[in-house]
Amino acid sequence: MDGVLSALIAVIGTLLGAGLTHLFQRSASTRDQEFIAQQQLRSERMTVYSNFAGALNDYRRGQLDRWHCKNEDPGSSAHVDARIESYQLRGLALHALFRVQLIASGQTLIDAARDAFAHASNLHKAFDKVDLASRGAHAREVLEQFIALASSDVR
């Protein structure tokens, strides 16, 4: 009888050990999957935010070129080309903005991206070089504010 009881205890102990091992492995696997998902989201956000900043920077440059061409020689082919390029750059920046809106973790970051886009969009409407410089500096500052918020979102 002692042999049967010992065998029964051994079987129960083995089953209990196997069950606990399964639970710990499942818990570790879940943590690993969550960590991988968080790292992937972080990486995607880093890509989206940096692509937006780059596209917006190109758009700002295009808007400045457009303003200079318009004020140096309105109606010239250079002005028309600059205007067309600014439209293309606007489309790329807008696409990048949409991606930010899809992946951002909060409304504050989305609002900062929209604000940066709006300031870049108004550069070509400057009245003179002083106004252009002021608008350009402010657009750059707003973009830097977006970058600061985005960097905290990927940490």
Order of helices and strands: HHHH
- Portion of residues within helices: over 70%
Count of discrete structural domains: 1
> Whole-number radius of gyration?
28 Å
How many H/I helical runs? Answer: 4
Indicate the proportion of strand residues.
under 5%
End-to-end Cα distance: 63 Å
What sort of overall outline do the alpha carbons produce when their principal axes are compared?
rod-shaped
CATH architecture: Up-down Bundle
Would you report the number of β strands?
0
CATH fold naming: Four Helix Bundle (Hemerythrin (Met), subunit A)
Mean pLDDT: 90
Tell me the major beta sheet: none
Task: State the name of the first-level CATH class.
Answer: Mainly Alpha
Parts with pLDDT < 50 across at least 5 consecutive residues: none
- The helix/strand class is mainly alpha
3D structure, described in words:
The chain has 4 helices and no strands. The protein is mainly alpha-helical and 155 residues long. 23% of the residues are buried. Helix 1 packs antiparallel against helix 4. Helix content is 89%, strand content 0%. It has helices spanning 2-72, 77-103, 107-121, 129-153. It has one domain: Up-down Bundle (Four Helix Bundle (Hemerythrin (Met), subunit A)). The mean pLDDT is 90.
SSE layout:
Layout: H1 2-72, H2 77-103, H3 107-121, H4 129-153
Short account of what is shown:
Helix content is about 90%, strand content about 0%. It contains 4 helices and no strands. α1 (about 1-70) packs parallel to α3 (about 105-120) and α2 (about 75-105) runs antiparallel to α3 (about 105-120).
